[in-house]
Every structure is written in structure tokens, then in C-alpha cells.
Amino acid sequence: MFDSQNKVSKINVEIEVYLHDGSQFLGMVSVRRGQRVSELMNDERQFLPIQMPDGNVVILRKTAIFKVVPLDQHIEHDKIIDPYDILGIPRSVSDEDLTRFYHKACTEHHPDKVQSAGLSPQYLDMATSRMIRINDAYQRIVSMRRAAAAKGQESNAEPDPSSS
């Protein structure tokens, strides 16, 4: 009656969902092995079922979703990942605002927040993955800005008259 050969093997992918109304949350979606989340978002279905941290499933209309970010604890620096996109800030942000956005992101996504809510270890891992991405993005931006400032100081430095 049921043919086990027709079963499709699926895996759960941890994601962060950003909605058009500005809200965001962590969740999981099921994808076929080898399928990317972007393919899931671009298929013909109008709705996307997302498992929430409390185990409930929310079904969202895809048009309400602004962005879906798969969470991966292993950051590969050879892949181009814009740290400004990870933090959700413009490149023109001041250093003070950068620090403020960073602290806000840490507060929102810290694993202790998930743990204190009594959520499953899966969601604790998701929050940890997200924090790794946030910390990495912030450190890369700060390093790039320091290097640019140092380079600017070198080019603006006046030649030492005693060295002539």
C-alpha cells in the first residue's frame, strides 16, 4: 500500500527569519537532502511551515518574509559574507552606532536568553550559531575600520624632516 521508495529524505535547517514588518525570529524548516533554503523559498508554494523554538509550527505566507538566513556554526571566511548584512546595518553607520547595534544584536540573540526560556538544545545551538556570526561580523568590521584608519594616518603623515 505505501511504497517506502517514494519517501524523500529531509533534513531540518536552522534559520533566522526576517519579516517585512521588521520582526525576526529563529526557527527550523525541513528541506530535501541537497536542497537549499533559497530553493524552498522560490518554489511554487505560497506558504512556508516553520517550526518555532517551542515546538509549534507556524505557517507563514512567503510574501510576508523579507529574508531567511540559514544558520551555520562553521563560518567559512573564503565565502563572501558581508558583515554589515549580518548585523543589518548600513556601511555608513558611525562607530558609536555600530557598537550600539552590536550590543542590541547580542542581547536579542544571546544563548543565555534561549536557555532561560527553557527551549530545547536545538534552539540553544541555533542561538550559539547566530552569536558566532554576530561576533565574527562585528570583529571583521572593527578590524576593517582600524586598518582603514591606520592606512589613512600613514598617508596623511608628514615626512620627517630629520630623515632627509
Structure in a nutshell:
The chain has 164 residues and is α+β, with helices and mostly antiparallel strands. The protein contains five helices and five strands, in the order ββαβββαααα.
The gross shape turns out to be elongated
The stretches of 5 or more residues where confidence is low (pLDDT under 50) are 73-80
Order the strands across the largest sheet as they lie in space.
2-1-5
Specify the number of helices: 5
CATH class assignment of the largest domain? Mainly Alpha
Evaluate the radius of gyration: 21 Å
Helical content band:
40-55%
Please name the CATH topology of the largest domain.
Helix Hairpins
CATH superfamily caption of the largest domain: DnaJ domain
Describe the protein.
With 164 residues, this protein is α+β, with helices and mostly antiparallel strands. The chain has two domains: 62 residues, SH3 type barrels, CATH 2.30.30; 74 residues, DnaJ domain (Helix Hairpins, Orthogonal Bundle), CATH 1.10.287. Helix content is 41%, strand content 21%. The chain contains five helices and five strands, in the order E-E-H-E-E-E-H-H-H-H. The strands form two sheets. Strands 2-1-5 form a three-stranded antiparallel sheet. A two-stranded antiparallel ribbon has the order 3-4. Helix 3 runs antiparallel to helix 5. The longest helix has 36 residues. The protein is elongated, with a radius of gyration of 21 Å. It starts with 9 loop residues before the first strand and ends in an 8-residue tail after the last helix.
